[in-house]
Structures are given as C-alpha cells and as structure tokens.
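Table 4 source record.
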Amino acid sequence: MNVPSRPNRRYEYVDDGPAIYVDSFATIRREARLDHLPANAERLAVRMIHGTGQVDLAEDLAIHPDLVPEARAALRSGAPILCDANMVASGVTASRLPRGNDVLCFLGDERVPGLAREWGTTRTAAAVSLWEPLLEGSVVAVGNAPTALFHLLEMLIDGAPRPTAIVGCPVGFIGAAESKQALTELADRFGVDVPYVVARGRRGGSAMTASALNALAKEEEA
C-alpha cells in the first residue's frame, strides 16, 4: 500500500489537535457572554458554540438548571440516547459515552412510513412514537425536525413515560422556534417538568445537538 506524502507547507496554521481544542474553548470564553446560564452548564454552552462557530449562540440558549446533573447521571447509569435523525446520532462521539450507551434513531424503521401516512405527519415525527418503550429515564435529542419535538411534547402531555432530559434544537423556518418555545413552557402549561436545553429561534441542527450530547456525556472538554 502506498503511503501518501504530505504536501508542501504553504500556510501558517495550527495543526495540533489538542492545542486547537484548548485555544478554541479559550476564545469562546473570551468572546461569549455566559453569565446568564446555570453555572453547571458553562461547558455545555461552550461545546455547543464550538460545534457551530457562533459565539452569539450563547444569547439564545435556554438551559434548565437541572439539565446537566440529571442528564449526566442518567448517562452514567446507562440510559439510551434517542435521536430524531441519523445525523444527530452519527455526531455522538462513542468514546465519550460513560457506559457505551445505546444511541438510537428509528427513522429507518419499516413501520414509520405507514404511521406517517396514517397520521398525516412527517416520518421524523412518526418515528418518535417508537421511542415510547425506551423513553423512561432516557436522554432525548431532537436536532432536525420541529414536528418531532412537537410530537414528543404531545406524547408527554398525554402521559407517555418521561425522559430524564431533552436536547431540543430543531432547525428551520417553519415551527422550529415555536416547538422550542413550547418545550420551555411545558412545565408551566401542562405540569410536565423535564430538564431541557434549547437554542431559541430558528437556529439548531445536527452539529449543535450532537455537540450538546457530547458535552453531557463527558464533562472533560478535550
């Protein structure tokens, strides 16, 4: 097998992996305003900012005060992570998981297309219903589809088992901001208090959501 040769160095840039992490997180802490967030959530916020390259994301983060300790305890006890999209699941770093936790997405399940047609909803929302046997004590991550988050909230209001925590960061122009607002109001409106982190507004996505999961899985930043 041929061994490739490195191209001639023509640019000045940092190429030491650990140093890049250290410098990146230091830059975020210098530039982002984090004082409005729970003290135990600083590293979570920093990693979410790191995953998006958007320092102003901090202004839009809303984090339940119990999210970080409860999610970490659940993962350390072996709780599964339930994801709305394969891109979210793929972004979870396996080596950070404290118990080799299952990271699951049911979007490809053969039952999903039929449920979506029957209910007149998206496949991503229909797949969320297949989480129900695993919901109790799980860590849920919605990073793509607002319909998935709305569907989950409706399940919880109807009495479905409660997850330990919800990372609610669906992205988009239709329903994203509204679904995240609904999550933050779930306890006040319906008495269902589940710790959460959301990025208010339209921003979200797989990278942001996976970054949050990686921060919750392991406290150390590197």
